[in-house]
């Protein structure tokens, strides 16, 4: 930032004396290059954001405002990601695997995280989202997909050393395919002249959801608060469930076998009270008051399980926005 300001200060006299064409072709290109190099494309618009870093307080506020019922996910990400981003010499990339049923917030928390790390402009360069069923639909093309995946990671990190990769529906990926990126997650200083140690890999999966629900229900039936659940209570069951699930992306994967996933993060099923929180948050996002009558009506309109106790929303908060459209 200091170097950028100094360069701009030195260039001001040149700008004031230069012909219009020379300003456009010469000086502006220099300024643009400096701003681009330092990741400060919003400099002239008053942004103090430093790309590739995260404001912990702002991230916490975003999580508290938008993510409900996920105490462990918030704790893990708030600790792991800022610490990793502040480390200029990590030993390996950060790899987080988020597990839980549909609508529990895995994708949403990932988007909030990247939005706090990069501006929209830089996300186009530094964030890659890979959806298994969209990008790799055919089992017969697995070798081709492996090559494409390696090329994608290599190209992205070459352009942006703090690239973030989000792998959605990892449980639906063809077995063996995800192992193509194993070298990039390992403890190598460089691979063919490129260092991958500052990259972040986030994997989203439904695998392990049944184990997470079992534990949650056990606590609920015992009258215990789910916030008492510790990561050590559930992490092993989650990664073993993912590792042993046949016909899924993590089945006997070297990423798990070689301990290259740093944390397996559980996402708990959403109770009625959490669905209400989702409804209120969506109402506020749309500029409406958090009307209690509408909130309760929408929350009650969701389907809950198990059949007898009806504790958890089958679709979590995934259909809240659609339900709200019908009520407003």
UniProtKB/TrEMBL annotation:
Q: Which Gene3D superfamilies match?
A: P-loop containing nucleotide triphosphate hydrolases
UniProt keywords (A-Z) are: ATP-binding, Endoplasmic reticulum, Glycoprotein, Nucleotide-binding, Signal
Return one GO MF term.
ATP hydrolysis activity
May I ask which residue range the UniProt record assigns to the signal sequence? 1-18
Cellular component GO terms, alphabetical: endoplasmic reticulum lumen; nuclear envelope
Per the record, the GO terms for biological process are: nuclear membrane organization; protein localization to nucleus
Which branch of life, at top level?
Eukaryota
State the InterPro entries in the record: AAA+_ATPase (IPR003593), ClpA/B (IPR001270), P-loop_NTPase (IPR027417), TOR1A_C (IPR049337), Torsin (IPR010448), Torsin_1/2 (IPR017378)
Entry's localization field: Endoplasmic reticulum lumen
Annotated residues that bind ATP are located at 100-107
Q: Does the keyword Metal-binding apply?
A: no
Q: Does the keyword Cytoplasm apply?
A: no
Query: One matching Pfam family, short form?
Result: TOR1A_C
Residues of the AAA+ ATPase domain: 92-233
- Describe the family membership recorded for this protein in Swiss-Prot or TrEMBL: Belongs to the ClpA/ClpB family. Torsin subfamily.
Task: Tell me the protein's name.
Answer: Torsin
Which species is listed as the source? Engystomops pustulosus
